[in-house]
Amino acid sequence: xxxxxxxxxxxxxxxxxxxxxxxxxxxxxxxxxxxxxxxxxxxxxxxxxxxxxxxxxxxxxxxxxxxxxxxxxxxxxxxxxxxxxxxxxxxxxxxxxxxxxxxxxxxxxxxxxxxxxxxxxxxxxxxxxxxxxxxxxxxxxxxxxxxxxxxxxxxxxxxxxxxxxxxxxxxxxxxxxxxxxxxxxxxxxxxxxxxxxxxxxxxxxxxxxxxxxxxxxxxxxxxxxxxxxxxxxxxxxxxxxxxxxxxxxxxxxxxxxxxxxxxxxxxxxxxxxxxxxxxxxxxxxxxxxxxxxxxxxxxxxxxxxxxxxxxxxxxxxxxxxxxxxxxxxxxxxxxxxxxxxxxxxxxxxxxxxxxxxxxxxxxxxxxxxxxxxxxxxxxxxxxxxxxxxxxxxxxxxxxxxxxxxxxxxxxxxxxxxxxxxxxxxx
Length: 426
Fold this sequence. Notes:
The chain is mainly α. It has two domains: 1-177, MFS general substrate transporter like domains (Growth Hormone, Chain: A); 186-378 and 386-407, Growth Hormone, Chain: A (Up-down Bundle).
């Protein structure tokens, strides 16, 4: 364990710095957009550029890695992140920002893929969960820390944008100068969403809804804080509480999903999400402390549910299909993140910032109701190949490699195997 941690120390330092800049960027961009007087619908269009770039990178980046290797592509992607945020400071126009944010989405998604491929080379079955837990904690700590840098500057000028670009650039140094052995190029993963849906409908529909919810929150949460009358520091705290709730809920949700039908846990998450989002809409504009508490409950389910669906899909996968399944799930999730801001932005414009949580509550109703319907349609063990480990994901969706690595069956996990000659996935 210690040797594995030492071998990824420089990579984790780069990840921490990258996520500090990402956390700062993800808050300062919507805050500046609000200050420019742009409508929520316009801001949602900018967010759509980001999610399109993020999804495209899931397909394109592995090809670049195969051609030139991990480090060169990582350096190029972090450079794109720095360029993207600096261009936002240089050209303040929403149409240009849509392109700049697409560049950032492409770069951050590819960076996740490279980081996780690197980690896969350094972990064993015995320390996989521990190493990936370190990774997830690093991403959350970095993101929260970056959001708290916003009160130190003024989003209406270029200072925070320049600071963000500098931090992205510094994030290059630990990995670019590392002497650790480089990972082997990843094999290209195939994906077949139609096949995946036939085998596991609840996983595919759930992944799409999870993407829509996280896409709406990550891109419009900052707009909610600004238009609800919160100060910059209070807004940063609210966003941090969502991440904190996600961090605290990972282990309970994971353990529950390993001990019962995962679809029952999906139903429970749908109920918690619906109630907490409606409560958030009701207390919008109220005391900040009350908002922080309710936001933590929203965060406790809005991010972990994606990995819950990935785990369910992999329960019905053969060992050589894990990467294929995870890649397909990432594409579905990415399409969901594209739809989220487009759907929610106009509604927030018409009904106010609290409408964000009303729409999220509706998504949670669909999420829980569909899982409940699938329970009535098929028995828990139909088509089950092996019960795999659950690994919750960070706030920002991670790459296919993380999902596959985190969900590999451990030798210590009791296998529940049925006849898989003609598997019939749920």
